[in-house]
Automatic annotation (TrEMBL):
Gene3D superfamilies: Acetoacetate decarboxylase-like. This is Protein NEOXANTHIN-DEFICIENT 1. GO terms for biological process: xanthophyll biosynthetic process. It comes from the Eukaryota.
């Protein structure tokens, strides 16, 4: 999307930048051949048996320098630059012009404006099977103790007056009547590389320091209107290449999902690096 850069008044003060909200961090097995299309030649992809670790970071911020907004970071894979390895973002989608402008100019991210449509569907509670009700005594019954509402997040990239559906992400809704255990409070750092874009040609390194409650959850199911096109070689030419490959990352096999609650994320200012292979 062509953002009118000069008309955007940034609320981002001097770093570090603080974001508060919640997020789903899902790690996938991504084909190395797909991930390499995003990785600059200066870096070496961390891979084994033809795969690397990528996935996505889906966040909803209720407090940030850009106010309230949603973000989907598509992670292509892990790259190596001695003495450390860092994640590389294939595409960043946000429903905030200000956040998009900041990501492009200051952090060197491949940011794009997107629309996030959210819908919650109630899934009825299953009835207890009387024939096997005695198994509940041993915790083996088939009855669900509470309804499992599903949240569907539809992400569409906006380009002027046009838009392109990226994916649908379906996960268990957090809105339940029973208070869920949110997991232990932890502190962690997610180092990342960025840059090498038309908005910021430098190769950069930055860190996100997270303080949150974290717990493992069932991986979200990713699908969408473009799923068949992303898998079908005959229709690949109809999609913009980087967008198509980003969808392929989203559709790759999930291996673990972590829910971050009561999230405070501190993003440090990027530094210019000279990578060595």
């Amino acid at each position: 999307m062509d953002i009118e850069e000069g008309r955007i008044s940034s609320g981002y003060a001097k770093p570090p930048w603080i974001f508060k909200g919640s997020a789903l961090y899902q790690i996938h097995l991504v084909k190395a051949a797909t991930a390499r299309t995003f990785i600059p030649k200066e870096f070496r992809l961390v891979e084994a048996f033809g795969y690397t670790l990528g996935g996505f970071f889906l966040a909803s911020y209720d407090d940030s320098p850009a106010g309230v907004f949603d973000e989907l970071v598509v992670i292509a894979g892990i790259v190596w630059n001695p003495p450390t390895s860092c994640a590389w973002a294939a595409r960043v989608l946000v429903n905030s012009n200000e956040a998009c402008h900041h990501g492009r100019k200051e952090v060197g991210l491949p940011s794009h404006v997107a629309r996030f449509s959210k819908k919650i569907t109630a899934v009825p509670k299953r009835k207890k099977d009387r024939a096997f009700g005695f198994l509940d005594t041993f915790g083996l019954g088939t009855t669900l103790s509470h309804p499992q509402d599903l949240m569907e997040v539809k992400v569409s990239e906006v380009d002027g007056a046009a838009s392109a559906d990226i994916c649908n992400i379906q996960m268990r809704s957090e809105e339940t009547k029973v208070k869920k255990w949110m997991g232990p409070a932890i502190k962690m750092s997610l180092p990342s590389f960025s840059g090498n874009t038309k908005y910021n040609s430098n190769l950069l390194k930055y860190s996100c320091h997270l303080h949150c409650r974290v717990r493992p959850v069932k991986p979200a199911v990713v699908s969408g209107a473009l799923e068949d096109e992303a898998k079908n070689l005959s229709s690949q030419e109809s999609l913009e290449n980087e967008r198509r490959l980003s969808i392929a990352v989203m559709l790759s096999k999930p291996i673990v999902a972590l829910q971050f609650k009561v999230l405070t994320m501190q993003v440090e200012a990027p530094t210019v690096i000279n990578p060595s292979i």
